[in-house]
Structure formats: C-alpha cells, structure tokens
Write a structure and sequence with these properties.
With 164 residues, the protein is α+β, with helices and mostly antiparallel strands. It contains six helices and three strands; from the N terminus they run H-H-H-H-E-E-H-E-H. The protein is elongated, with a radius of gyration of 28 Å. The chain starts with a helix and ends with a helix.
Length: 164
C-alpha cells in the first residue's frame, strides 16, 4: 500500500510541476519538448517504486549497434540522401532565380558536403550552358554568388565536357 501512495504522490507532484512548466515555456516548440521530457520523467518516477532499488537501465546494446556496419551504412545513406535533396532544392531555386532574369542554362549542378558539425557546406556550383556572353556569365556569377557566397562557380559547355 505504501508503494501505491508513493507512486500517486509522485504523479501528483510531477503533474503540478508539468502544469507550471507548461505556463512558463516561452514557445510552442519548447512546450512540446518540455512535455516529452516531463512525460519520460513521470513514467520513470511511477515505475521506480514498484521496481525497487535494483532498477537499472542497460545501454550495452547501443554500443553493439554503433559498431555494426549496418548502422554506418544507414548513416552514410541518410547523409547522401540529405545532400542530394538539398542540392536538388538549391539547384531548382537558382534556376528559378535565373529564369526570373530571363537567363536560361542547360543545367545547374551543386556540389556540397557535410562539415564536422553536420552543417552543409556548398563547395562548387557548375553552370552548364552553351554560348554565354561575358555579360551573361557575370550576371549568373552575381546571382549565384549572392545566394551562395564563398562558392566556386564554374561554367561548363558541352564542347568542354566532350574534350575531357
């Protein structure tokens, strides 16, 4: 009976703290995260009196998972997909920006990579087009440079790519 009282008292205290935290949270995204944390604490607090002092959580299986090649391959596949989707979205945005200025190219290709902080770093932008004037190249360089500062911009024509 003492165990039930402890569990109910714990649930009440956490419920009160949860209500105060809900009022004090500054934004909606913060409220969702706060509710998730408080719910996790409440679940642990409710079950701890029933389990007793021998309650332990084992994380040995996580270490085994991180050494598994499947985990590494899945992580690499996700990074590749993430980069390709991002590159595709950037390419589309640049094409729309160029078309708004009545500049048409055959293809725009963006090259990127993840840095050590998992932030996307755009390394190069390739503009595939034939017979562009120097003025048009300058406009393209300005438009891409304003959208992607510190990015190398390379112009490629079909003639150039066939000789390589």
């Amino acid at each position: 009976m003492e165990t039930f009282r402890t569990a109910i008292l714990t649930a009440c205290i956490i419920g009160i703290v949860s209500t105060f935290a809900d009022f004090a949270a500054p934004g909606e995204s913060m409220k969702k995260q706060l509710k998730m944390i408080i719910t996790s604490v409440m679940i642990l607090a409710l079950f701890t009196p029933f389990v007793g002092s021998e309650f332990r959580i084992s994380v040995d299986a996580i270490d085994d998972l991180s050494e598994d090649s499947t985990y590494n391959r899945l992580n690499e596949d996700f990074e590749d997909y993430y980069l390709s989707q991002t590159n595709s979205n950037i390419e589309q945005a640049i094409v729309e920006k160029l078309e708004a200025e009545n500049i048409y190219t055959d293809k725009i290709r963006i090259y990127s990579q993840l840095d050590e902080y998992n932030a996307i770093e755009i390394t190069k932008a390739e503009v595939h087009a034939e017979n562009l004037s120097e003025e048009t190249k300058e406009k393209i360089t300005d438009l891409i440079g304003s959208a992607l500062p510190d990015t190398e911009i390379v112009f490629v024509s079909e003639v150039d790519s066939e000789t390589q």
